[in-house]
Fold these 2 entries.
Entry 1:
Amino acid sequence: MSARVSGTRRGEWYELMPGKLNPSEPGGRYEAALLWLTRELGFPDKLLRELDAAGEIKLAGDRLRLRLFPPRTSQYAPVERPIDLLYEDDFCLVVHKPAGLKVHPDGAGSPPTLANLVAAVFAQRGEPIAPGHIHRLDEYTSGPVLYAKNAMAQLKLDAAMARKEIGRVYTALVEGQVSPALRVIHEPIGRDRHHPSRRRVSPSGKDALTRVELVETYPKASLVRLTLDTGRTHQIRVHLSHAGHPLVGDALYGGSSRLFPHQALHGESLTFPHPLTGELIRVDDPWPEEWNRLREQLRQGKES
């Protein structure tokens, strides 16, 4: 919590202490409180108007209360399975997504997804919360997924995502020895006309930039750390394959799956501005356990 913002959740309401408000503002202290919410907290205008119209903003003395946590029912059926919560507070949730699990359903009859597991967490607690994901990861990419736990957090984090203020760092095991000189891959990415689920580097595609840091080399493979300036579908997989270093296990983009059944790609860390305080939050997600075995095989020079 920022030093200039103090707050406490009280059931469906959130109580803030805005400090001294100027009663000379047109509309008195109440309007001054709304102005404080806009200027100091960057409170979303649309949500502020909705709360105001519904009588869900109350000012009593030096306490400002907002109904930020009305009951919400998840659209996803809860499925109880083990799940790793990496970070949680009243506004945000970061969950580890294992490889092989989709973030949310994409059609009728789809198997359980991370959304179903997250819904089960709050069903078990008896909390009427329906978190919304802020970003996605490919089905076979592991790593942290950020969720908003109320409408304010959803609006603020969606806006932060659009402004590229949410940072994600990935690690990947790739085929071949990557040159330390390979620092940036800046190639446009578009759809592959010959394969509906594949993307490719294309002059007519959308701008895409991937930053590359070499971490380790093995006889026939490398470990790289990657950050994205853009967020195109399959961006890392397309760019590394184009550079001659497909991801280990990534058969769709030219990698061998002899040692690993899917792309060896993991979201290592996530940073985001907290929707209430603006404080930069960093959440780390340790490498998957199966990577230890794979890296040992690569150190021994086994063909990926």
Entry 2:
Amino acid sequence: MHGGEFLTIEEAAKTLGVSTRHARRLADSGALGRVARGLIDRSTVDRYLQSQRQGRTRTWAEHTAWAAVAMLAGQDADWLGATQSSRLRRTLRELTEVQDLLTRMRDRARLHTFDAHRAAIPRLRSIVATSSTRSLGIAHTIGDGIDGYIDAGEVDAVVRTLGLRASMNGAVTLRVTEFDVDRVRELVGSPVVAALDAATSTDPRMRGAGRRVLADVLDAYR
């Protein structure tokens, strides 16, 4: 067994209760953070576990997940058809467990962590769309890090241009989305996105605050 910071792909599979092949697929998709050949960032395994639920709850497609964000935030999701919208509103009204919502929302973005030179942080802040923990009642302490959403079509160029390095515990978290980035930027400012981001954090205080806000959001939506 390795130390606390990383796992072999076999150890990650055992922790998740899945096959090694499935763990490799999760790493290939970006759901788990690969830091070297055959090595997985333990923190991304923890985050994935936080977003999981025992049972058969299915994740929503990316455009559906962002539509659910919009509806919960009191905004229109006009990229869905009338039938899809009606079905999604009904599902949201019927949800009673925060964990169900987190599981369904899991594929709204793929999470990657990086180390970055201090000089790259201001440029990253001008590129990514970041949520704020202030809406959760938690002081917003940025420090030298950043956590935000970025268009999948931009991420490779940003990583290359700014010299980002994949890291187990990097201060830069990029949530890579293939959905319309302009829509994402409109929605990321809502407490719903801040709560979703916080609710799968490995920090217990952040996780608890995010889940409390999501519970209130679901109650209000019903």
